[in-house]
Amino acid sequence: IVFLVVNVTVSPYLVDSPSMEPGIQVGDRMVVSTLAYKFNFGSPQRGDVIIFHPPSNLNQTYVKRVIGIPGDRISITPTSVIVNGHTLNEPYITLLDPSAPESANVLPTITLRANQYFVLGDNRQNSDDSRFFGYVPRANLIGKVEFIYWPLTDLRSVATYSNVFSGVGR
Predict the structure, then answer these.
(1) Within 10 A of 3 (CB to CB), how many other CB atoms are there?
(2) Rounded Cα gap, residues 99 and 83, in angstroms
């Protein structure tokens, strides 16, 4: 029974892409709460790191950070991400050359509808995310990343940086 409960509520996940660097590295192993968003136990929040199937390929799984939730207005300039008119100060993203744009993909303002989520990788220069495939439907969500368990020397919970989104409101 314990084995069944554990395998239904959490799942291991191996990171195979640098899209979430520097916080999450290729080769990290994570525990994902598969019940976090099922059966109305909760909804993804801005800052959550999630595992999902991208709408462009349901056979793949991606790990990204939730930037926008239903009802949010999102826009992206070459130097910033703006949610509901609030420019995010994102300490978790990979910064390359200070003069380099954060994103070469400018996005005019979009408004997310019910059950739509906007996700971005923390390594904006090397991430296939909502800038390319659009919003992620709630039905594609697998779960919330709770912590990294491997390598053991780096055992830690995954930060949501909720303070980054504190001024966003609606």
Answers:
(1) 7
(2) 23
Query: Known catalytic residue: 19?
Result: yes
Beta strands 136-137; 116-120: pairing state = antiparallel
The one-letter amino acid at 80: S
Among the listed residues 11, 17, 19, 157, the single catalytic one is 19
Identify residue 55 by its one-letter amino acid code: P
Q: Of 33, 64, 130, 144, which is the active-site residue?
A: 64
pTM as predicted: 0.87
CA distances from 78 to 6, 21, 49, 84, 138 (A): 43, 20, 23, 17, 28
86 CB-contact burial (10 Å; exposed 0-12 / middle 13-18 / buried 19+): middle
* pLDDT, averaged in runs of 10, over the chain (170 residues): 56 84 89 76 89 92 96 91 92 70 74 96 90 94 88 79 83
The verdict on whether 38 is a catalytic residue reads: no
Dump pLDDT digits (tens) for 16-53.
Answer: 899 988 888 899 998 888 877 776 667 899 999 999 99
Q: Element (H or E) spanning 3, and its range?
A: helix 2-9
Give CA 133 to chain center in angstroms.
14
